[in-house]
Amino acid sequence: SKLEYDYPKRGKSHVFDALKPYLLGVQPIGAYDKPAAALNLSPGAIRTGVHRLRHDFRMHLRREVAKTVDSPDQIDEEMRHLRTTLRTEQ
Questions:
Q1: Contacts of 90 (CB under 8 A, 6+ apart)
Q2: 19 contacts: CB under 8 Å, gap ≥ 6
Q3: What's the pLDDT score for residue 90?
Q4: What is the DSSP annotation of 26-45?
Q5: What is the DSSP letter of 3?
Q6: Could you tell me which of 45, 47, 46, 62 has the C-alpha nearest to residue 2?
Q7: Which helix (H) or strand (E) holds 30?
Q8: Are 23 and 35 in contact (CB under 8 A)?
Q9: CA distances from 58 to 31, 38, 62, 76 (A)
Q10: pLDDT (average), residues 6-34
Q11: What distance in Å separates the CA atoms of residue 53 and residue 37, rounded to the nearest whole number?
Q12: What is the pTM assigned to this prediction?
């Protein structure tokens, strides 16, 4: 994915690799302890990193969805449909 290439360009491939398992879903208490130790950061810094990664992912996904619709006003509707579909399949 484009997101996977953006982090190495910024010199943060190790951060992406450590955080990508946390990209989707809600994490249980203590889930960020292991990546925090591996990256020598606090769990709070990992939580912030995951938040930023999720934001970047949404932006990349939104750009890709925009390529599949006829007009910009359809993007939000398509994003809602995608979220609903993904929730139903879990």
A1: none
A2: 35, 46, 49, 50, 53
A3: 54
A4: PPPTTTTHHHHHHHT--HHH
A5: H
A6: 62
A7: none
A8: no
A9: 22, 26, 6, 12
A10: 87
A11: 18
A12: 0.76
